[in-house]
Amino acid sequence: MHILLLNGPNLNLLGTRQPDLYGQIRLEDIENSLKDLAQQKNVAVSCCQSNAEHEIIERIHKSKGVIDGIIINPAAYTHTSVAIRDALAGVAIPFVEVHISNVHQRENFRHHSYFSDIAIGTIVGLGAKGYDYAFDALVTTLQK
Ligand code: DQA
């Protein structure tokens, strides 16, 4: 089984970016924690972060036939990107949507996601641990 962890814009700044909202953990720590978890379960993980919509779309396209499941935090593209939604629907790879902060407690424009209705599930507001929970849920679903 091969899982892709895909993080969108500004998540490369985790650790220093608005720590009151996103905590102090760095993206590298999140990726390493997921790789550890994956190793224990004999699952391969690839990680990608991009600030560019077209790069995220291309990474999704390249995943077809290679990646079994995706954990995605589309970041600000959650609320804007029909194009990334279409890419995920186009490759038909099951995915879990993660948000570190509780977007429902924030500005109204963060309350709508272009992804949630086509995701297996969403994990919101549980901090960086949400990625680990998403991994567990995704692997369990794919094993069924
Ligand atoms: C986020 C929430 C988004 O609204 C925001 O634009 C982000 C991060 C989160 O993980 O809480 O960049 O996806």
Automatic annotation (TrEMBL):
<dbReference type="Pfam" id="PF01220">
    <property type="entry name" value="DHquinase_II"/>
</dbReference>
<feature type="active site" description="Proton acceptor">
    <location>
        <position position="22"/>
    </location>
</feature>
<protein>
    <recommendedName>
        <fullName>3-dehydroquinate dehydratase</fullName>
        <ecNumber>4.2.1.10</ecNumber>
    </recommendedName>
</protein>
<comment type="similarity">
    <text>Belongs to the type-II 3-dehydroquinase family.</text>
</comment>
<keyword id="KW-0057">Aromatic amino acid biosynthesis</keyword>
<dbReference type="InterPro" id="IPR018509">
    <property type="entry name" value="DHquinase_II_CS"/>
</dbReference>
<dbReference type="InterPro" id="IPR036441">
    <property type="entry name" value="DHquinase_II_sf"/>
</dbReference>
<feature type="site" description="Transition state stabilizer">
    <location>
        <position position="17"/>
    </location>
</feature>
<keyword id="KW-0028">Amino-acid biosynthesis</keyword>
<feature type="binding site">
    <location>
        <position position="86"/>
    </location>
    <ligand>
        <name>substrate</name>
    </ligand>
</feature>
<keyword id="KW-0456">Lyase</keyword>
<feature type="binding site">
    <location>
        <position position="79"/>
    </location>
    <ligand>
        <name>substrate</name>
    </ligand>
</feature>
<feature type="binding site">
    <location>
        <position position="73"/>
    </location>
    <ligand>
        <name>substrate</name>
    </ligand>
</feature>
<dbReference type="InterPro" id="IPR001874">
    <property type="entry name" value="DHquinase_II"/>
</dbReference>
<feature type="active site" description="Proton donor">
    <location>
        <position position="99"/>
    </location>
</feature>
<comment type="subunit">
    <text>Homododecamer.</text>
</comment>
<feature type="binding site">
    <location>
        <position position="110"/>
    </location>
    <ligand>
        <name>substrate</name>
    </ligand>
</feature>
<comment type="function">
    <text>Catalyzes a trans-dehydration via an enolate intermediate.</text>
</comment>
<feature type="binding site">
    <location>
        <begin position="100"/>
        <end position="101"/>
    </location>
    <ligand>
        <name>substrate</name>
    </ligand>
</feature>
<dbReference type="GO" id="GO:0003855">
    <property type="term" value="F:3-dehydroquinate dehydratase activity"/>
</dbReference>
<comment type="pathway">
    <text>Metabolic intermediate biosynthesis; chorismate biosynthesis; chorismate from D-erythrose 4-phosphate and phosphoenolpyruvate: step 3/7.</text>
</comment>
